[in-house]
């Protein structure tokens, strides 16, 4: 019985990924560290060659121990010790460097889904980039906004951060030529011990669905809600 083309591609991809695993030992995390798994859906991964390129970029990312490929669902399963927001961003961009088109990233804590902007049919190009904005889970006081704003200002190229408390959003202005990854904003929010719900910008809309509810906030002194800006 002859093997059909689809099964052959899957087999070749599995062999290729196994070979890459052997060469990744030098980049792997120290033994004894708890290993976690992250799944990334790559819509552009349609053949063994695609899987090989994307897997190679993932294995070049420090800390990655193993990469599994499911060609049928176009899903990559990455094993690594600590999937921090910064690390998740590095994995996402590794897939892009391998000419992949990631649309979803899944961890045990959250699911990240990207909806890219639609092309303008007349110009065959994406619409003008929207200002960067980030929606925050339960942004109920000025102190929370201040903490996030300080972390956002630490990003290179950020010139102004404005907050809309009623909508639970922060808006960023950047210097000319600055291109910030949405994952940088997610990481900055996490450093402020807050939860992002979505990041808007030229990349489209990256939404975050959390597996559990955020812990309740208990401030000794509640601060009045208002709309304002923070500028250096």
Automatic annotation (TrEMBL):
Organism: Pseudobythopirellula maris
Statement: the UniProt record of this protein carries the keyword Metal-binding: yes
Lineage, opening ranks: Bacteria, Pseudomonadati, Planctomycetota, Planctomycetia, Pirellulales
Keywords: Metal-binding, Signal
Residues covered by the HMA domain: 36-100, 130-197
CDD domains on file: HMA
Signal sequence segment: 1-28
GO molecular function terms noted in the UniProt entry: metal ion binding
SUPFAM superfamilies given in the database record: HMA, heavy metal-associated domain
Protein name (database record): Heavy-metal-associated domain protein
Pfam family, one: HMA
InterPro entries in the cross-refs: HMA_dom (IPR006121), HMA_dom_sf (IPR036163)
């Amino acid at each position: 019985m002859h093997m059909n083309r689809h099964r052959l591609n899957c087999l070749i991809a599995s062999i290729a990924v196994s070979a890459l695993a052997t060469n990744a030992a030098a980049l792997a995390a120290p033994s004894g560290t708890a290993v976690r798994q992250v799944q990334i859906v790559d819509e552009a991964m349609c053949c063994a060659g695609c899987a090989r390129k994307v897997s190679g970029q993932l294995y070049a990312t420090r800390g990655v121990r193993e990469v599994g490929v499911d060609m049928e669902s176009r899903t990559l399963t990455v094993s690594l010790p600590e999937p921090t927001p910064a690390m998740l961003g590095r994995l996402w961009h590794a897939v892009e460097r391998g000419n992949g088109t990631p649309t979803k990233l899944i961890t045990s804590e959250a699911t990240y889904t990207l909806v890219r902007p639609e092309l303008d049919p007349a110009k065959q190009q994406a619409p003008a980039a929207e200002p960067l904005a980030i929606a925050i889970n339960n942004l109920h006081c000025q102190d929370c906004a201040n903490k996030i704003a300080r972390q956002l200002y630490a990003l290179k190229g950020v010139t102004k951060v404005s907050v809309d408390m009623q909508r639970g959003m922060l808006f960023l202005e950047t210097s000319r030529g600055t291109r910030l990854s949405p994952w940088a904003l997610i990481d900055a929010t996490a450093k402020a011990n807050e939860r992002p719900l979505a990041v808007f910008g030229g990349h489209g809309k990256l939404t975050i669905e959390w597996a559990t509810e955020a812990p309740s906030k208990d401030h000794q002194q509640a601060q009045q809600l208002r709309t304002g800006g923070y500028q250096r």
